Amino acid sequence: MNASPQNNANIGILFVLAGVFCISINDMFVKQLSGGYPLHQIVLARSGIGILFSMIFVQLEGGLGILKTKQPGLHAARGLLIVASNMTFFVALAALPLADATALFFAAPLFITLLSIPMLGEKVGPLRLGAVVFGFIGVIIMQRPWEGSDSLGASRIVLLLPVVAALTYAMNQVLTRKLGITTKASALAVYIQATFIFVSVGFFVIAGDGRFAVGSDSPSIQFLLRPWIMPPQSDLWVFFGMGVNSAIIGYCLSQAYRMADAATVAPFEYIGLPLAVFWGWIIFADLPVWEVWTGIAMILAAGLFVFLREKQKSRAVARYGIKRR
């Protein structure tokens, strides 16, 4: 008999809210450190500490035996997807205001809604699909296709990176829902942390001396490829905090997408948008331009409509057994 996914929406929502709050803090710290450290050094330190704390969750959920898996290929794919998502987002974050990069990244719940159809067999009707299209129009507005690259403050490629991050993140969370049927949240988090460590060590071996960043004045290239440096003592606490935060993020998001339908949980990630605006204003004195505000409003409206439509149809199915659409 095949196991089926759990569906506890309230618990899933609580976990995703906690995870997204921690993500907003993580993004703020990464942007703070992006001017002096290479991305792979930050990721290695964060994940090295994070995996230690993730192992505490493993012990609480059953011990080392839960790390055994019959689907190593899917877990590896999931890990590489979240690594790609983090790398592309943080490289963009070095060149873009925090709120702008985060707003573009929040195409992710829209992608999750779309991907849940072919990958999970979840039903998404024409009204919700229309809301997704509306949200993507908001993403296009934030890209400001009518402006020249000189007035954007970043290249078109950099502006697209958070959208790429959103797509790979969405694919990761859909796989989380699939793999979470048989895998504990703590094990899912450990696999992610291990993948980050493996990829970061590879970056260090190939580019840790900074030779590939020589001659480039791009903040994104510098952040990705500059040489490693020894952190001063004042930054060590930041790295430690990021590691603990990373363990919490990995567990909470894995648990959220294990416990509830992807299309139900994903819209609650939008709490990250006002948090990004808040941190960007308080820490970096950045506020979005009107195009970004417009895109934020459209993406929020689309995500909330998808969620409310999902809840309405779920109640109708429960009461009358009608077909969802």
Descriptive overview:
The chain is mostly helical and 325 residues long. The chain has one domain (9-320). It contains 14 helices and no strands. The chain has helices at residues 9-33, 39-60, 72-93, 98-105, 108-120, 126-143, 149-152, 156-179, 185-207, 219-225, 233-259, 262-265, 272-284, 290-320. Helix 5 packs antiparallel against helix 6. The longest helix has 31 residues, at 290-320. It is globular and about 55 Å long.
What is the count of β-strands?
Answer: 0
How many domains is the backbone divided into? 1
Number of helices: 14
- What is the rounded distance between the termini? 29 Å
The value of Rg in angstroms is: 20 Å
The computed structural class is mainly alpha
Oligomer: single chain
What is the H/E order? HHHHHHHHHHHHHH
Label the overall shape: globular
Tell me the fraction of residues in β-strands, as a range. under 5%
Summed up, what is this model?
This protein has helices spanning 9-33, 39-60, 72-93, 98-105, 108-120, 126-143, 149-152, 156-179, 185-207, 219-225, 233-259, 262-265, 272-284, 290-320. With 325 residues, it is mostly helical. Residues 316-325 have low confidence and may be disordered.
SSE arrangement:
Layout: H1 9-33, H2 39-60, H3 72-93, H4 98-105, H5 108-120, H6 126-143, H7 149-152, H8 156-179, H9 185-207, H10 219-225, H11 233-259, H12 262-265, H13 272-284, H14 290-320
